[in-house]
Amino acid sequence: MELAIMHTSPTAALPLLLAFALHAAPAQGELARTFVSAATGNDANDCDRPTPCRTLQAAHDKTSDRGEIAVLDPGGYGAVNVTKSVSIVNDAAGEASILVAGGAPGLVINSGAESHVMLRGLTVQGTGLGDGAGLVFNSGFALSIADCAFHHHARDGISFAPNAGGIYDLSIAHTLLADNGNMGILIGGASAPTTIRAVLDHVEMLNNRADGMFVDGSYGPGTISVSAADSIAAGNGRDGFDVFTTIQAATSLTLLRSVAANNLGFGVDVEDSPKASLRFEHSTITGNGHSWVASGGAFLQSIGDNSIAGNGDGDPAPPMIARR
Amino acid sequence: MTKLALSPVLVAMLVGAAMPAQAQLARTFVSAASGSDANNCDRPTPCRTFQGAHDKTNTDGEIVVLDPGGYGAVTINKSISIVNDGVGEASILVSGGSTGITVNGGPATNVNLRGITVQGIGFGADFGLFFNSGLSLTITRCVFRNQSREGIIFAPSVGGASNLSISDTLVADNGSEGILIFPAASGVAVRVAVDRVQILNNGQDGFELAGNSSTGTIDAAVTDSLVANNRASGVRVSSGNDTAATSLLLNGSVVANNATGLEVVPASMARLRVSRSGITGNARTWSLGFSGVLQSLGDNYIVGNADGDPAPPTIARK
Q1: What is the fold of B67-302?
Q2: What is the C-alpha separation between A66 and A87, in angstroms, rounded?
Q3: If we measure between CA atoms, which residue out of B308, B270, B307 comes closest to residue B290?
């Protein structure tokens, strides 16, 4: 091995190195890192640091695959249709906002099957005009959302419902979903076999007109596994956490140290077949119309250490399993 | 390309927030450095005060803070967000018997506040935030301190639903209650969610849920919070025998160094449950009247209180 390397002359290695370099280089006219500024940006620019773009969409279109968009200052950056692997990051430069009007979502993810999309520090707000949602995920592989807010949309705050079968990862951390007209978060499969792995950490789902979170496995076969830690679903018009499936995808939700409070329907709701399951531990269920329901053979299991009190149904004890 | 078909007009609406309806914008800006309330509050020509921007913002719009400084008291009468996402302190100083933020919304009004500091400087009976009406108020990453009266008073004066959510917020050094939930109407449906909030050094109760002046229901959950060093009770639930059903569940929190840790007044409609919390350093651990409900889930740490840490009534975890 050592001999072989020594016998490879620098001249012979050069084309190889060049090939790697070219492979890693962005497509023509695209930058690996672009910038947006509400103060000085212009979409006629190339989006580099001295001459930033004005909108997220223009920056996205001028960012190479696997690149990133950095927000420079507070302001509105417009709706964006994401079609590649990209990070959009506002690290406390001030509010980076997307106002939603006219029926189109604030953020749409239409990326390729191996794409990773990361969103950080964005506020997406509905303006009461049109039938819009905060974020709609149609395709891609992994979507990570941190430090964002999605509120006051006519439809869902976040709709993660891939339109084709496949494997998908979703993570949401330190994010607020409030005052939306339908679900705070909707997670659902496609008609073809779908695997969705989703985690939530420190997510607040407040005052949404339907459920705080709705996990729906009824669209097709596969597996949908969701874990939510240190999260809260409160004041929603229907259920706090709702898991639903039929004979289709095996659909499960695990709640850790989370809160379902003051929801008009059930605190936690799992239905409508034995393929649906919901487990919860160290969690608080209070002030709901009803504390919990499991119907259609669905599994609801408490680890026996939850605080269930002050609900409208008198706080019946759920089925329990042992800790190990 | 599979781009969204966005018309130039729509792009202009979404991006520039240029949605003029009677000279109002969907998105307005405030700057302490360069703002003037004679401006229209757009990005190049921001306003100076929250009130100036509020009055020039469409219903369902938002106000964006551009830089650190004082932005003045504001009375909110529409659905709106006021957001400071880390540009420096966006402050409201309160004095002379006034209120920092007043919410007078309609029955469908949603108000969002983020990253605002409201501080009293004396000279009168001041409130940090006074909520009179609206459907929902969501407060994150704010500070309400040093008011001569309550830090936050949530007092719906009309019946129906009103939701209050507070997270990652400090309420300290106020003369009366830190946070007082006190609706004054019949048929209220008040729902409160408090998460990761510090309620410190207030002159009366830290957190009080009061159903005395209303009928209907008041449901509250306080989680992962700290209620300490308040002069009266850390957490107090009050109501009457025929007033609003008033219930609080306190979970994962610390109640320390108050005159009384947990107080439930003698009224059948007052209910407080506590789980996985630490109750310590209070002169009196808890106080329960003959007809209220105070229940421990049996998993609290109750030590170091001056009355010898009596065990409260317990119910089972599930």
Answers
A1: Pectate Lyase C-like (2.160.20)
A2: 8
A3: B270
Domain ranges of chain B: 67-302
Q: How far apart are CA B259 and CA A287, in angstroms?
A: 28
Residue among B219, B238, B193, B295 nearest A287 (CA): B219
Instruction: Judge contact between B6 and A60, C-beta under 8 A.
Output: no
Q: Is the CB of A287 less than 8 angstroms away from the CB of B4? A: no
Nearest C-alpha in B relative to A43: B15
Nearest to B262 by CA among A305, B271, B169: B271
The verdict on a CB contact (< 8 Å) between B223 and A90 is no
Taken in order A71, A72, A78, A82, the sign of the CA dihedral is: negative
ipTM of the modeled complex: 0.89
Let me know: does B176 contact B150? Beta carbons within 8 Å: yes
Contact list in B for residue A110 (CB cut-off 8 A) is: 2
CB atoms under 10 Å from CB of B79, counted, come to: 27
DSSP 3-state percent helix, strand, coil across chain A (nearest 5): 10, 45, 45
- C-alpha distances (whole Å) from B25 to each of A99, A154, A195, B172 are 11, 19, 43, 35
Classify A109 as helix, strand or coil: strand
Q: Which sequence spans correspond to the domains of chain A?
A: 156-324
Pick from A99, A234, A306: CB nearest B27: A99
Distance, CA of A99 to CA of A264 (rounded, Å): 29
Task: Out of B16, B191, B318, name the one closest to residue A287 (CB).
Answer: B191
- Kindly give, in sequence order, each residue whose CB lies less than 8 Å from that of residue A21, ignoring residues fewer than 6 positions away: none
Q: What does the alpha-carbon distance between residue B160 and residue B156 come to, in Å, rounded to a whole number?
A: 9
- One digit per residue, the tens of pLDDT, for chain A of length 324 reads 333 443 444 444 444 444 444 444 455 579 999 999 999 999 999 999 999 999 999 999 999 999 999 999 999 999 999 999 999 999 999 999 999 998 899 999 999 999 999 999 999 999 988 889 999 999 999 999 999 999 999 999 999 999 999 999 999 999 999 999 999 999 999 999 999 999 999 999 999 999 999 999 999 999 999 999 999 999 999 999 999 999 999 999 999 999 999 999 999 999 999 999 999 999 999 999 999 999 999 999 999 999 999 999 999 999 999 888
Contact B79 A261 (CB under 8 A): no
Inter-chain Cβ pairs, chain A and chain B, closer than 8 A:
225
Asked whether the beta carbons of B110 and B131 are under 8 A apart, the reply is no
C-alpha to C-alpha distances, A214 to A184, A251, A268, nearest whole angstrom? 8, 11, 10
**Sign of the torsion formed by the C-alpha atoms of A199, A73, B58 and B100:** positive
Nearest to B103 by CA among B167, B173, B153: B153
Q: Are B51 and B74 in contact (CB under 8 A)?
A: yes
Put simply, the answer to whether A304 touches B318 (Cβ < 8 Å) is yes
Distance from CA of A131 to the nearest CA of B (A): 14
The enclosing H or E element of B11 equals helix B8-16
CA distances, A15 to each of A6, A26, A27, B78 (Å): 17, 18, 19, 65
Which residues in chain B are closer than 8 Å to A94, comparing Cβ atoms?
A: 64-66, 84-87
Q: Which of B184, B201, B213, B192 is nearest to B137 (CA)?
A: B192
